[in-house]
Amino acid sequence: VRLRRHADVKVLVDDLRVARAIAKEALKRSVEQSVLIEVDIHMKRCGVLPGQPAVELARKVARLKGLSLKGVLGYEGPFFELPNFDERRTAASSALFSLRDTVEMIEQEGIPVDVVSAGSTGTYNIAGEYPKITEVEAGSYVFMDSTYGKLQGLDFRCALTVLATVISRPVRERVVVDAGLKAITQEFGMPSVKGSEGAKLYHLSEEHGTIEVKRKARMNAGDKIELVPSHCCTTVNLHDRYYGIRDDSVEVIYPISARGRLQ
Ligand SMILES: Cc1ncc(COP(=O)(O)O)c(C=O)c1O
After folding, report:
1. Nearest protein Cα to ligand 1, atom 1
2. CA pair distance 222, 165, nearest whole angstrom
3. 90 falls in which pLDDT band (50, 70, 90)?
4. What would the mean pLDDT of 94-107 be, rounded to a whole number?
5. 3-state secondary structure string, 46-80?
6. Which of 13, 38, 75, 136 is the best mutation target for the ligand 1 pocket, counting ligand atoms within 8 Å of the beta carbon and taking the most?
7. What is the C-alpha to C-alpha distance for residues 26 and 11, in angstroms, rounded to an integer?
8. What is the pLDDT of residue 15?
C-alpha cells in the first residue's frame, strides 16, 4: 500500500479478510489500492476456486472502499511435464477456459473486468491467443533454463549461465568446480555443463559442483566452464549482478537489486 504513491502495483487477493485488511490500510493512507482476484485454475497453490466462489469474492471486494478491483489473475503454470506442444495446449486450454468462464460470470454481475492475467513461459503462445486475456505473465523467457529448454514450441534460447572455475581434478573421471548450492539451484534437477559433451554434473554441495567427465576430456584446474541452471529464477536470486556478454566481452553489468529482498 505504501508503494501506491509511486506506482500502481496490483495486489492479488483470494481471501476477503486479507482484502479488508488491505482496504483498511489504503483508507488510512488515503490511497486506492488496485487489486486482482487470484483464481486457482490449475496450480493448486493460492487462488479462490473458479466459477461461483470467484464471483462471490469479486462481488464483495468490489464493494470495499479503499480498493479498486481491476480484474482477475489465473496462473496455469509452466506444464513442464508436457514437453509436446499440442498436449500442453490441450491441458492449458482447459485451465484457461475456466478463467474465461469465470470472467464472463463476473461481468454478468455488472462488475467490469479490465485485466485478465494468465500465462507462463511454457504457455505464453497459448494464453496469448485467448481474446479475453489482456496480460501474459511470462517471466522466465528472458533467460530460459535447461528445464524450459526441454519444452517444444517455445521460441527462446537459454541466455543465462553461471561461470564456474575448475578447482580440482582428483582423478581422470572427476572434475570439481567452485560452484555449489550457493551459486546455482538444483530445484528442477542438476545444472548442465554448456558445450561439454559427456560432462555430467551429478552433485552440488555448498561450494562445490562435482562433474563426471570422460577420461580424455580436457578440463583442468583454472579452466572456466558455464553451467546452465535447471531453474533460472532460483539461481538469479543467489547473485548480486549479471554480466552481459557479447562476442566474448563483458558489455554491461546489471545489479540484481531485488536479490534477497524477501522481507
Ligand atoms: C503467478 C505467476 N505468474 C507468472 C510467473 C512467471 O512464469 P514463468 O517464469 O514460467 O514465465 C510465475 C512464476 O513463478 C508466477 O508464479
Report:
1. 75
2. 6
3. very high
4. 97
5. CCECCCHHHHHHHHHHHCCCCEEEEEEEECCCCCC
6. 75
7. 12
8. 98
Count of helix runs (H) and strand runs (E) in the chain: 5, 13
Please state, in angstroms and rounded to a whole number, the distance separating the CA atoms of residues 206 and 253: 26
State mean pLDDT over 213-217. 95
CA–centroid distance, 119 to ligand 1, in Å, is 8
Number of other CB atoms surrounding residue 37 within 10 Å: 28
Mean pLDDT of 166-193: 98
- Ligand 1, CB within 6 Å, residue ranges: 75, 78, 120-121, 137-141
User: 200-231: buried (b, 16+ CB within 10 Å) or exposed (e) per residue?
Assistant: ebeebeeebbbbebeeebebeeeeebbbbbbb
Q: Which pLDDT value is given to residue 260?
A: 87
Q: How far is the CA of 222 from the centre of ligand 1 (A)?
A: 37
In ligand 1, which atom is closest to the CA atom of 75? 1
| pLDDT value for 2 | 85
Interval 39-50 mean pLDDT: 97
78 CA to centre of ligand 1 in angstroms: 8
Atom of ligand 1 nearest to the CA of 141: 11
Distance CA 212, CA 176 (A): 9
φ/ψ of 43, rounded to 5, equals -75, -20
